[in-house]
Amino acid sequence: MTSTPGAGALPPSALQPYANARILLFSNAIPGVLDSERTGRFLFEGFIKRLRGISSKENSPGVDTGDFTYEGYLTRGAVLPLTPSGHWDWLAAPISWSTSGIRPVSATTPALLAPCFGAVWLGPLSELRTPGRLPIPSRGQFAAFSVTEFGGLYGSGGIGSLTQPLLGERIQAALKPNRVVVVASGESLNLLAERHLTTVSTLRGLNPSLTGRPSDPLPVGSWLFIPKRRAAANADSSTTSLPSGFPLSAPPSRAASMPA
Question: For the domain that residue 196 is a member of, what is the CATH number?
Fold first, then answer.
């Protein structure tokens, strides 16, 4: 993933010049069970637009109070190694894209199915650099992200068979502000768990790569998911299970996260 295919190697999506988002999504051992073992990392660029905010009466699987619903089209995609080469490898400017407008298919990684979750950087893609890092200062937004449907509203058949090759695979999604944090100096799992009213075991479940001791300082500039406050507030510190429901939601952190 250190180089981009040469000109003409990948037929471009019609919307690629207008792409405004880098989207990182994880596949799971049990499709749709978002706290099951992660089996793959998928990267996309896409053109997405905001629809509306979600109230407490409109919660649904993968969509929580305070989220903003989005829709749009995937413009290109790639399968990344499950183990990152760096905290921000998915935001590197050059990527070896393998598909145009559709989800990649891998011989070694299960297919990416909805619902699935991950993160999004929504902003000018010209701000991305090599090696990958979070653009700061920026007019973009870094947030948790869930895709609730691929192919809607028309699906892959009917008119979808005409529009998807031209525009790319359509997605319905939810952007979740303030549900990821960037680690500041001196922060540990113990400190973050206390700040966000959750447990170390819950943070480990949401971030499988965190294997150090709870008191060890986390790498400055790394990032991690944090859980929903309403689930975390009732968590039993003695359990290792994840909160019920979709696992990405929490109050704003004083850690260095991108503003909404």
Answer: 3.10.350
